[in-house]
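Reopening this ticket.

The earlier resolution said the output was attached, but the attachment link was broken on my side. Pasting everything inline this time so it's all in one place.
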Amino acid sequence: MPEVMAFDITGKEGTKQVEISPRSHKGAWVSLGTYAFEKGNWTSSIKIDGCRSKGALFADAIILVPKNKILIFIVPIKTKYKKRIP
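Inline output:
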């Protein structure tokens, strides 16, 4: 798991650089902030910046949530089940 994951997020207001620490949020969704993306504007983007990141990079998914909407996240917890043998 990387120490730092860096992102470049380009929206209506321009590009913002964001960094998170995945080790602090193991298995949980992490907010990258609130941004305005224009409908039909193909220059909007969310990119992982490998040069500013530290460690092996990965991203399972990105969820874009409309502003003023309620969303409940359910994140599966990785557990190991042990089968009991009689």
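Reporter confirms the inline version is readable. Residues 73-86 have pLDDT under 50 and may be disordered. The beta strands are 5-11, 14-20, 45-48.
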